[in-house]
Amino acid sequence: MSRRLTSFQLRNVPLLSRVGADRADALRTDIDAAIAGWSDALLLRVDSRNQVLIADGRVVLGKATALGDKPSEHAVFLGRVPDGRHVWAVRSALVAPEDRTVETQVLDLRRAGHIFDDVSAQLVATATALLNWHDSARFSANDGSPTKPSKGGWARVNPVNGHEEFPRIDPAVICLVHDGYDRAVLARQTLWPERLFSLLAGFVEAGESFEACVQREIAEEIGLTVRDVTYLGSQPWPFPRSLMVGFHAIGDPDQEFAFHDGEIAEAGWFTRAEIREALDHGDWNSDSSSRLLLPGSISIAREIIESWAALD
């Protein structure tokens, strides 16, 4: 009999949870001080498809003054990089760096998160989330009045009544269900191609705790009753504005699957050896003929699976 395992931890910080810059939140309320750094500030351009320019594993940051002598109304303040310079972001067409010898790529977080350094990962994740929120928050949820950005892009104000709205985040849980030994559940959504499997996930409902959401979502999606729901870590997922909150929980392999809500096409219990083999074949973008293709490194799902699979 294998050694019983009831708990484990993530081996690494999820890629999009890395911290490399100072968010400098005090400057959001002292906007004059934030603007005072504009003359030597850096600018991150994010296009309409949430793509950015990348060079040598870093996001390309241009000169903020290229926009003018002060931030535009729709620029968002991201904080300070380690050398102290301020960084702002705008929704804009991408502009090649002044140094034409620098080779650049156009990529988004999904395709570039694994090659980013910590500073780039934080800046692009934050900019993507903020700009996505502004795109969909131009009118007040209270009375439909047009709203205006404030606090360096970290709020929007209704000019009619002064009501402030702040960036919306949709929390979602993601959970690895295992048997306490060497088997874990992987599932494939109905919209995914054959062989693409991942963990079970779902959005938190009003009035619901994270732990209760884990139990409800797993029961709805595959019919299992789980226990010992344990927190592992979290990761921003700005597609468009989610926060993924990771857990593991124990389930019973003798309980039959039941696909109640139609989101899951198939699910199965896989051994640690099978999952290790699938991890060795790469991820969803691999051309491997492996029975399983698992999420890429940008997802907290990958980190959870790898951390569990690495256990003795």
Structure in words:
It catalyses: a 5'-end NAD(+)-phospho-ribonucleoside in mRNA + H2O = a 5'-end phospho-adenosine-phospho-ribonucleoside in mRNA + beta-nicotinamide D-ribonucleotide + 2 H(+). Belongs to the Nudix hydrolase family. NudC subfamily. With 312 residues, the protein is α+β, with helices and mostly antiparallel strands. The protein has 7 helices and 16 strands. The chain has helices at 26-29, 31-36, 109-112, 118-136, 210-222, 272-280, 300-309; strands at 42-46, 51-55, 58-59, 62-63, 76-80, 86-91, 105-108, 148-150, 155-157, 164-165, 170-178, 183-189, 200-203, 227-237, 242-250, 264-271. The strands form 5 sheets. It has a 4-stranded mixed β-sheet, covered by helices on one side. Helix 6 crosses helix 7. The longest helix is centred in the middle third of the chain and has 19 residues, at 118-136. The two termini are 13 Å apart. The model has no long low-confidence stretch (mean pLDDT 93).
Outline:
21% of the residues lie in helices and 27% in strands. The chain has helices spanning 26-29, 31-36, 109-112, 118-136, 210-222, 272-280, 300-309; strands spanning 42-46, 51-55, 58-59, 62-63, 76-80, 86-91, 105-108, 148-150, 155-157, 164-165, 170-178, 183-189, 200-203, 227-237, 242-250, 264-271.
Quantity of strands, as a count? 16
Oligomer: single chain
Q: What Rg do the Cα atoms give?
A: 22 Å
Instruction: Summarize the helix and strand pattern as letters.
Output: HHEEEEEEEHHEEEEEEHEEEHH
* CATH topology-level name of the largest domain: Nucleoside Triphosphate Pyrophosphohydrolase
CATH class of the largest domain: Alpha Beta
Q: Which percent bin holds the helix content? A: 10-25%
Q: Report the total helices.
A: 7
Structural class from helices and strands? alpha+beta
Domain Nudix hydrolase: 167-292
Pfam family, one: Zn_ribbon_NUD
GO biological process, one term: NADP+ catabolic process
Family: Belongs to the Nudix hydrolase family. NudC subfamily.
